[in-house]
Amino acid sequence: MKKITRILTLCMMPAVANAASVDLEAPKTITADKIEYDVKSETIKTSGDTEIVNESGQRLTLTDSYLSQNGDDLAGSDIKLWLGDHVYIESDNFVRQGDETTAYHATFTACDDCDAYGDAWEISTRKIVHDMDSRMLRFYNPVLWTYNIPVFWLPFFEMPDPGIKYKTGFLMPDFSSTNNMGTQINIPLYINFSDTHDLTFTTSILTKENPMFQLEHRLNLDHSEFRTTGAYTHNREGENRWYISNTDIIELGEYARATIYLDRASDKTFMQKYGFYDDQPYLDSGARVELFGQTGYAVADAHIFQELRSYSAYHATPTGNILPNIRGTYQTAPIYKETYVTLDADILGISGDGASSQRLIGDARIVSPWTLWGGNRITASLSARYDVYNFHNTDLIDASEFSGLKDRFLPSGYLEWGLPLFRVGPTWTQVIEPRARLNIMRKTDEEQFTLNNDSAGTFLSDTTLFSDNRFSGLDLWENGTYADYGVRYSAFNTDGQTFEIFAGQTYDFSERIDINPNSGFHNGASDYVGRVAYNNTKWLNFTSRFRLNQQDLSLRHIETSAYIGTSQNYINIGHIWSQQFIDENTQDEDINEISGGIGIQLTDRWAVRFNAIYNLTYDQFQRHTGGIFYTHPCYYLSLQYRRDNAIKYDYVGTTTFQFKFGMSINGQRY
CB under 8 Å to 214, separation ≥6 — which residues? Predict the structure, then answer.
């Protein structure tokens, strides 16, 4: 018997491998009530119950089987072929000829014992044909059953066998509905070229609009990756509307990387109308090359923008493209104690609307931090910056148009002091740190040049204090001398909980020009700014930033966010309020907006989630979304909605409903 079993093991290898579509080169056991081997015909016959188990645990059970020695022919009855932990094909009759294995009057499921009250789903069919060459399972007259209830019938259906990770074919469609484009059915076709190269082509059928076509392309190479998405439609008004997004990342060695990015749309509202919009203010296309070093970094990039925002009575959208933008930073090793030098260079070109400008900046800074007696920390810094600008038909800060060269020299320095004081307790460690910084720089009222390069105004916040330049960007620069000061209290314990309070202010010794009444800055002492934060690392993370009027401590600005709960059951809340002035004496409508979300895990598998943004100033929702989700080991489904109240050009806010359903087989979604 031992000798016969060994021969059976060798002979069964091809048959089992082809039947299960997996590698069974090392069968572990073959068991049968009776085994016969015909030496003349080189065939194997078993009687009674037969089981084959390989080293991975997959098995084939059948009764009264017959197979040829080379595995080309295999037949049996009462067959159950296990293709995974919960995946099997059960059949009354099982026949294999060549590369095709046929199971008659078969049942296929990937939900064996997933629920105590029955299989979540199974497919019964007149026959299943497995083509070893194409690695496909073909179902003839299949009926889908859910918990022993027939759901729907198809004349024919095919899918890749569970041993295949990628296979070309149609994916599960999903459905959505909007109040301005009707019902939308998305039919995705997945095309696989290799393990690292594939694409998905989706045809979207809309009842109130012409069809839309979407494409997602993915390619991974050894040192690069390429991603492209896009959509196109020829709508009922006869317009061609589209968008394309592409990101290519190419590693150029250990210390260099190149990135090419493209984001473009046919118009300002296509992405919003067709559901691709995510509140982005503009689309950015260009390229970037980065060089890395242990103490240095350099990058060269270019940007071509497509503006998506609309003009209003109070704000104008910016214009212009950036080409080139080259900047680099180098930091020396300590030249004395912890003293080091940083060297920065920046080249920028901006063009658009018939105007252009080029800027060259060189900056050298020496920073010397010291820790003195009693824990006092002193940091001294000196900086020298030189700018050269070339303008062509450019509007300067005084509204005059200018062409030609301008330059400026901006020496500056600061002296910063801090004294962290610790108190260590049995569970909590407390730290209180007063901090002050004196910034000294050249006053440059008449040398700010232009407002339409890369700079914008400044707004006082806790993150603005203790910075070299309080403006956004590099073109606008602070004037004269100012001081920042504040105090920070923090505490943390052995359980990971942290608590923080910070309050501070800035003081301008020189008169500021064109003070924005909403900025929080004044001639002399500014408003007060601060933050409060708490995180217990388990169920609560809270942060609030605020600004108080420097005269009467009335609230001018507050931003608050809180996350309460776990990853499954949670509430997140966000709120922003800001008092707005048109000028020093005239108040405008306040900014007042609240956002929130809630997630509830009703059971192990059912969950509901809801998110909303509500404009309290205008007493209306800007957007709200929600849905119910069901996740089963063998399938998943969701029903979601989205309400957008935006109105822009030809786009009017809409409500969208979306339904998704899919099957899971061995952890893979179909």
Answer: 186, 200, 201, 202, 203, 204, 229, 230, 231
DSSP E strand stretches across 154-281: 156-160, 169-170, 174-178, 182-194, 197-206, 212-221, 224-234, 240-251, 256-265
| Sequence-distant (≥ 6) Cβ neighbours of residue 326 within 8 angstroms | 298, 299, 300, 301, 345, 346, 347, 348
Cβ neighbours for 139, distance < 8 A, ≥ 6 positions apart: 108, 123, 125, 128, 154, 156, 157, 158, 159
pLDDT digits (tens, 9 = 90+) for 344-394: 999 999 888 788 889 999 999 999 999 998 889 999 999 999 999 998 988
pLDDT value, residue 71 = 52
Other CB atoms within 10 A of residue 160 CB: 20
As a whole number of angstroms, the distance between CA 157 and CA 142 comes to 7
Q: How far apart (Å, rounded) are the C-alpha atoms in residues 302 and 291?
A: 15
Please, which residues have CB within 8 angstroms of residue 556's CB and are 6 or more apart in sequence? 520, 527, 547, 548, 549, 578, 579
Output the pLDDT for position 8.
40
State pLDDT tens for residues 444-454: 766 677 766 66
Q: What is the pLDDT of residue 169?
A: 82
State which amino acid sits at residue 389.
Y
- The answer to whether the beta carbons of residues 628 and 602 sit under 8 Å apart is no
Judge whether 624 and 641 are in contact, CB under 8 Å: no
User: Residue 621 pairs with which residues in a beta bridge?
Assistant: 614
**Residue 564: what residue type?**
I
User: What is the per-residue pLDDT across 66-76, written as a single tens digit (0 to 9) for each?
Assistant: 776 655 566 77
Residues in the chain: 670
Query: What pLDDT score was predicted for residue 33?
Result: 85
User: How many angstroms from the chain centroid is the CA of residue 145?
Assistant: 36
Residue 540 tokens, joined: 């609560």
Maximal C-alpha separation, the chain: 108
Cα(128)–Cα(458) distance, integer angstroms:
69
| Percent of the chain's residues with pLDDT above 70 | 89
Helix, coil or strand: residue 16: helix
The letter for the amino acid at 582 is I
The whole-model pTM stands at 0.77
Q: Got the DSSP string for 540-601? A: EEEEEEEEE-TTT--EEEEEEEEEEE-SSSEEEEEEEEE--BSSSS-B-PPEEEEEEEEEEE
Q: Using CA atoms, how far apart are residues 450 and 284, in angstroms rounded to an integer?
A: 23
Interval 109-145: pLDDT, tens:
888 777 777 778 889 999 999 887 777 889 999 998 8
pLDDT of residue 63: 83
